[in-house]
Design goal:
The complex is a heterodimer of chains A (313) and B (156). Chain A is mostly helical. Chain A contains 15 helices and one strand. Helices cover 59% and strands 1% of the residues of chain A. The chains are: A mainly alpha (313), B alpha+beta (156).
């Protein structure tokens, strides 16, 4: 078995340099904004994610080491195995990401990444601290191990996948050459994914290859007539990393403790984000339907800030 | 041992880098705190952020321009728009979303059940206006009378 390094450790200096470069570019061009408290929150979340991976990542590693004995094949370490693992891992990422948006248990973990109203390279590092406890990696990653890919290889290509996704968190790169936009996940595609405009909700779940979204009906192109509004449907009113980390878990606990039946417990826990027994809350599906209904009555509202919201000292 | 040392170095360097990047962000500037210039701007922001919210036309803005309250037509919900850095956060409060209300002259403080948006406070033109909006907000409290006891506020 080759001694594979963790490529994320090597990428961290590049992450920092690229954030600095984008920050300077933002200042010179005004194409995007960095707000210090938002930036600090995102970067602290990223650092905490690394620490939690070290402290809690052993759960997934121990599980993968255990189930490796039940693998169907012994795929080994050939170069083509790395390439195949990279593609298959991206396929798994697509589905785990899609479920992370549609099952509240996993959304509680993933929402952290979407909780900034800014969209810049620091947002890429705004990551959860409790992912290993959500068991997402175990549930979605096991089948690659069971197929015969070595766990270390899966961890390696998974890290490459995450490194790829860093650079697409930017407003400074416009739409790219059409063949690239057709196959790869790009800044344009991922801006849509981070947008809260009803048209864009729950779209473009891809990690590296956007083809999965095209194949499974979740693709939405970025439109010039509808600029992205970033964040979440109910944006956070805090920069406190602890609250950012825990807010949706707190919501689940509050809702489950008020549930009046096992059905309500399951709905609040594993239903889509925004699920409620009487449908009074706003899930993505309800928002999209309401938006579709409203579109028939009036034109789509512009996404620019309404007049009168000034940027004043 | 080498791996642990490397890990500590990577984490330590990362922590220092985080601090330096934030300091650079402060130094470079390029952003300014958001402020509402009139209540209508906050209402527009609420209607944009809460699909289906139809303002009644009854709205008020705090003196600082950081908070706008707006009643929904029919009185079903109380819209709140508050600035957060260079962005804004909005909510449409329903019955039960308000934990308590306090009045201190022209300053109205509303405690919310929201985990990340626990409190909103605004100083209005006069005590009468604040009292009127305290009554509006009271419709969204499960059980709590308006208190005249002043307390410090932490948000907006």
């Amino acid at each position: 078995m080759p001694d594979l390094p963790n490529p994320i450790y090597f990428a961290i200096p590049a992450f920092v340099l690229l954030i600095v470069a984008e920050m300077i570019h933002a200042r010179l061009t005004g194409k995007t904004q960095y707000e210090p408290r938002d930036t600090a929150a995102s970067l602290v979340m990223g650092l905490g994610n690394t620490v939690s991976g070290i402290l809690l990542g052993g759960i997934a590693l121990a599980w993968f080491a255990y189930i490796e004995q039940f693998a169907l094949l012994d795929i080994g370490w050939a170069w083509w195995a790395f390439a195949l693992a990279f593609v298959l891992d991206d396929f798994v990422y697509y589905w785990s990401h899609r479920f992370a948006h549609t099952v509240r248990w996993w959304w509680a973990d993933h929402v952290i990444h979407h909780s900034s109203q800014h969209y810049n390279l620091s947002t890429a590092l705004r990551q959860p601290w409790l992912s290993p406890l959500s068991l997402k990696f175990i549930i979605f990653g096991s089948w690659l191990v069971l197929a015969g890919f070595p766990p270390a290889m899966i961890a390696f290509v998974g890290a490459l996948n995450l490194i790829y996704q860093f650079w697409i968190h930017t407003e400074t790169v416009p739409k790219m050459w059409a063949p690239i936009e057709a196959v790869m996940n790009t800044p344009s595609h991922h801006r849509v994914h981070h947008a809260t405009n009803p048209r864009y909700l729950d779209r473009n779940f891809a990690g590296v290859f956007i083809v999965w979204d095209r194949m499974f009906g979740s693709f939405e192109p970025e439109r010039e007539d509808e600029p992205c509004r970033y964040g979440i449907v109910s944006n956070l009113a805090t920069f406190n990393p602890i609250k950012i980390c825990l807010h949706e878990w707190a919501g689940i606990i509050r809702d489950v403790s008020s549930a009046r039946s096992p059905r309500e417990v399951l709905g609040y826990w594993f239903g889509p984000p925004g699920w409620s027994p009487d449908g009074s809350r706003d899930s993505s599906k309800i928002l999209k339907q309401r938006w579709m209904d409203s579109r028939q009555a009036e034109p789509t509202p512009a996404a620019a800030p309404p007049p009168g919201v000034a940027q004043a000292e | 041992m080498n791996e642990i040392l490397t890990l500590i170095l990577v984490l330590g360097a990362s922590a220092i880098s985080v601090g330096l990047v934030v300091v650079l962000n402060i130094f470079l500037g390029g952003w300014t705190p958001a402020r509402f210039t009139h209540a209508g701007a906050g209402v527009a922001r609420i209607q944009e952020g809460v699909l289906g919210f139809k303002a009644s036309g009854d709205a008020v803005m705090g003196r600082s321009g950081r908070v706008v309250l707006a009643l929904e037509a029919g009185g079903t919900r109380l819209g709140v728009a508050a600035t957060l850095g260079d962005r804004t956060t909005v909510r449409a409060l329903r019955h039960g979303d308000v934990r308590g209300i306090r009045l201190d002259g022209a300053t109205l403080t509303i405690d919310l059940t929201d985990y990340t948006f626990a409190r909103v406070w605004l100083t209005l033109e006069d005590a009468d206006t604040a009292s009127v909006w305290a009554e509006h907000a009271r419709a969204f409290v499960k059980t709590a009378p308006v208190s005249a006891r002043p307390e410090s506020a932490s948000h907006a």
